[in-house]
Design goal:
With 392 residues, this protein is of the alpha+beta class. It has eleven helices and 21 strands.
């Protein structure tokens, strides 16, 4: 988002900010869940996640017991500023990463020579006092978010909202194998925030059903107007050509890094059944080569042949300056291939006896298990073309 877009800059904001920030954002007042408890089995549920019939009948979905009256739980994680007991000020760990962007908007605007439309991105920790965390990594008290806040003229809001909605959906579509598990779902009228005309969720179908991956939100001028009001600092923008002065409107895209990690594993993991001579089958992690943590493994055919080992280590040492490479000479070659398949390594390079004769190696591709012979001198460019991010 930052490196490939000339009108987007990246920042890293503070995790602890002044408590007035969260009053201005509306989190202190509105960032709450309505929860009920079962009087019988003591399970706790969010009202908005209960089936309608259970809400209407006031009945626990697990045991059929009676539910308590709904209570409000604020999701902000409290902390304190100051060291003297009695004089400390209560504040909050940030409940979402985007508020730092609004706080730094004016500094970025003045120091980076940006003009509207432009954006600010951030990746960082956020904290929520979840009463019922769970579902693997899906709901946590401490998690990682990535956010884009894109500032536009109000008259161009629809254009940029549609642009970023499509851009982000295509990005997620480009990193997964199962395209049918991805969808773009519009928010219903009862889901929209009071300042939002539109909102969409990019969702992935998991073992838990359809789950939000990233949200694209129409935030209007709500955030900058509120921070202007609470700080007393005018955050209006003046167009250099027309001299028009206005509060920019904002398109937000906000996703979960932890959820991305989880969804990529769910999308990539496969246990292939035995076939032919393969009586065990294999476990494969079909991660996109751009995202695989290990890009290539270099394997000497035999570890007790000095020339094979020396050549393989030399290739490994050259490749690891360009990408993450592993050297492995433990167990037979088939076992080593399986080991790399399981961690998602897209390519294995095997140094065999033919290598010593003509300086070529075998390159094996993870998903198809197809193999080609390639000159050692051509190996770096061949791999870089396939494991480096394709910005187009």
């Amino acid at each position: 988002m930052v490196q490939t877009n000339d009108n987007i800059v990246g920042i890293e904001g503070s995790i602890i900010t002044h408590p007035r920030v969260w009053e201005a954002s509306g989190h202190v007042e509105n960032f709450v869940d309505r929860l009920v408890d079962c009087k019988n089995c003591k399970r706790r549920f969010r009202v908005d996640q209960l089936p309608l019939e259970n809400v209407e009948q006031n009945k626990c979905p697990e045991c059929g017991g009676e539910l308590t009256e709904p209570r409000l739980f604020n999701l902000m994680m409290e902390t304190y500023i100051g060291v003297v007991e009695g004089e400390r000020m209560k504040t909050y760990l940030r409940g979402e990463a985007c508020q730092n962007i609004y706080l730094d908007y004016d500094n970025v605007l003045k120091s980076s020579r940006m003009q509207i439309p432009f954006g600010i991105c951030q990746i960082g920790k956020a904290f929520r006092n979840e009463v019922t965390p769970g579902n693997f990594l899906f709901r946590q008290r401490e998690f990682e978010q990535w956010d884009l806040q894109f500032f536009v003229h109000p008259s161009e809001m629809q254009k940029w909202f549609d642009y970023w909605k499509e851009y982000r959906f295509k990005w997620y579509e480009g990193i997964i194998n199962h395209k049918d598990r991805l969808r773009l779902r519009p928010h219903g009228p009862d889901e929209l925030a009071h300042y939002a005309k539109q909102a969409f969720d990019i969702e992935y179908r998991t073992v838990l059903g359809w789950q939000e991956w990233e949200g694209i939100h129409w935030r209007q001028d709500w955030d900058l107007s509120r921070h202007s009001e609470y700080s007393g600092h005018d955050l209006s923008y003046t167009d250099h050509e027309t001299k028009e002065r206005y509060i920019p409107w904002i398109v937000e895209t906000s996703g979960g890094v932890d959820r991305t990690f989880l969804n990529l594993l769910l999308d990539a993991y496969e246990e292939e059944p035995p076939s032919g001579k393969d009586k065990e089958g294999r476990t494969v992690l079909h991660l996109h080569p751009w995202l695989a943590p290990v890009k290539v493994a270099v394997l000497p055919l035999q570890k007790n042949k000095e020339e094979l080992v020396t050549t393989a280590k030399d290739i490994h040492n050259r490749l690891k300056r360009l990408m993450v490479s592993q050297y492995d000479d433990v167990a037979n070659i088939g076992r080593r291939y399986r080991r790399q398949d399981e961690i998602g390594t897209p390519f294995c390079v095997t140094v065999d006896f033919q290598t010593l004769e003509d300086s070529t190696v075998t390159v094996r591709e993870r998903d198809s298990m197809g193999q080609i012979r390639l000159a050692i001198s051509e190996l770096p460019s061949y791999l870089l073309q396939r494991v480096t991010w394709n910005y187009a």
